[in-house]
Write a structure and sequence with these properties.
Four copies of one chain form a homotetramer.
Chain A: H1 2-8, H2 15-29, H3 37-43, H4 48-54, H5 57-79, H6 87-104, H7 106-114, H8 123-145, H9 154-173, H10 181-195
Helix pairs in contact in A: 2-3, 2-5, 2-7, 3-4, 5-6, 5-7, 5-8, 6-7, 6-10, 8-9, 9-10
The structure holds a DNA duplex (21 and 21 nucleotides).
Chain lengths: ~200, ~200, ~200, ~200
DNA sequence: CATGAATGAGAATTCATTCAT
DNA sequence: AATGAATGAATTCTCATTCAT
């Protein structure tokens, strides 16, 4: 009964969802190549063959995973961004949202970091990625034009600040650093110090 | 002359080195799991079986690669560090050395970033990694005690500044940002702004 | 009818059995090490990979084969032994059963002779073997206590009489001696003459 | 100097000897197929390549081993047999010589048992084997004609009595039975009881 | 003659994918 | 749609043999 309801509700099938979910986890814990299809099936509580009803092989699955994770990230950082924020507030908001995104979807977040450049990503995946990058570029360019950022290419500032966050997040995820409210704001301020004019 | 001496010392006529060299390149271009042994053999101009004279299987090889790369990095950042530098100069020196290390050994540098957490790393590899981390901790702790750094855990500052460099380097390696002398110093100053008191 | 039941019980549509069957034959015709997995697969009319669904590698297979053959032999010689036979009748019965076992399962019988001491036999295989040996010891010890056997250790008498049978069987299997009813009883009487008091 | 003398003395080379010696041991402890050439080289204290100066590959080696072992056995049982013995004494003498042969050359003796039928034996090896068999046949036929043996084919009596010895020897070699003078004579008498008229 | 590093054909094994049920 | 046993191509690894030193 409950199962039936979940299926009827959004998120389509439940089974497809479960597969993608299992896959992000395994791809992020291990690697794409290091993860076996029956392993994915097992964690999704689904038969191996079932995956092939929903995805075009392993490559189809990893692309679905990638797009899902990237769109999720876009939702956190771009789609929900309040308009009209000045550079400092805008950056602080993004930093906070990065934390939230990484905390809410640790597997997806880690997966994206580890599987950028992969040659199994198809055109759609690359397009989704590209779109996100452009949106970020636009935001940083706006701040730069307003003279709020260091005189470095927006690309440089984005790479460095995202890099700083990822470095920090990796340590947190590894348990080397404890995630506290204090850390979230202090690290954001530090990152801002790196890029502000 | 020097070459002659090396040949006399190690038994190596360079075959072992050639294999490790081919392996770092391929592991960084692709992945550990995504790289096939004959591929490594081919790039090293060696028969497939030869790899097994020098390394205990693929796992033995990847550990040799990891240790080599990590020790290389340690040499750039720790072993050759001039004593007696104050925090700002010390950090600037390290930032420059990171660039040099990444430029001189791009494959090794990229490999380390992508293959941290891998479960095929053995005790020795983990020990080598640990030692490097401890050395960095010591340096940053010294700067922190001198009151030159932001009041955040050294681990946090290290993660963020290394993360910033890696983010930047990835963009450079991907061809999105051009590596200039200007960029090297400006980015270093920006990173310093992030961590200084 | 019986066949139908077996199919319902075990999951087996006989594939596992076919593999074991092919394996005993090949292992006895050649050797364990001298037999190639695809050869086993071929004779079992199964794909090479299928063997690995049922057995843990070649070693798993050879152990399954060993246990099967040993239990088969135990069934012929121990499990079906009528109670209450005096020494001479008991021995005659066993001798006859050895012939039947060797004739009905020539591959298994030969395999056991050739692959005793092998170091790929696991704990279970050794336990099965040990149990059979103990049962034989018990039987011979009983006969010895009744004063019907020569004053030699039961172990000695078992080794010699089984050895005599195996020597004979090898010649029969090689075609050097013809298996006749006459031979079966005469050889049994001869063997009895060797061990009787 | 000493080395030179040994080489001059019989047994040709010393190195060839060492290789054959190492090979019998390993082939009997393991199997022909289960033994690696470098392993043989190692135990013979010789380089792997050296084996190929003396033998035509692994197959050449195993044939040399087989012939050596078989001729050794022939020497013990046939060549040195005193003429003019009656059946019972002749058999007792052979039984004693079997013990001596097995004790003096355990590896060779075991090797022969385990590697009869092997398909890597060449014409020469088979000829040597055949010759031994014929000699034994002759001896047993003589005893049979004299009416001293049971009315069974000589082949049958040979197979059974040799089989009995081998069975016994295996238990002794495995440590399950202790080799004593008492056992040697009692077992010989038992075996004689099996075949005598 | 002796060596043993190097070779590469061939063996064991894995794993993405299919397909009868 | 769902299953999971079966497949066999692809992969790792072994080992008899060669050959430059």
């Amino acid at each position: 009964m409950i199962q039936a309801k979940i299926i009827e509700l959004g998120k389509s099938d439940g089974k497809r969802e479960a597969i993608v979910h299992a896959a992000v986890e395994l791809f992020s814990e291990q690697t794409y190549e290091g993860t076996r299809m029956p392993e994915v099936a097992g964690r999704a509580h689904v038969a191996a063959g079932t995956i092939y009803h929903y995805f075009e092989g392993k490559e189809g699955l990893v692309n679905a995973v990638y797009q899902m994770a990237k769109l999720e990230m876009k939702e956190y950082l771009v789609d929900t961004m309040p308009g009209g924020l000045a550079a400092q507030e805008g950056f602080a908001w993004m930093w906070r949202r990065l934390w939230e995104c990484a905390t809410d979807h640790p597997a997806g977040f880690t997966f994206l970091e580890t599987h950028h450049h992969a040659d199994y990503l198809n055109a759609t995946s690359r397009a989704v990625s590209e779109e996100f990058t452009l949106e970020m570029m636009e935001i940083f360019s706006r701040y730069a034009k307003a003279g709020e950022l260091k005189p470095l290419a927006p690309e440089t500032l984005i790479s460095m600040s995202f890099g700083a966050f990822i470095g920090l997040w990796k340590s947190v995820a590894a348990g080397a650093i404890k995630d506290t409210e204090e850390l979230r704001s202090a690290s954001g301020e530090a990152a801002w110090a790196m890029i502000r004019a």
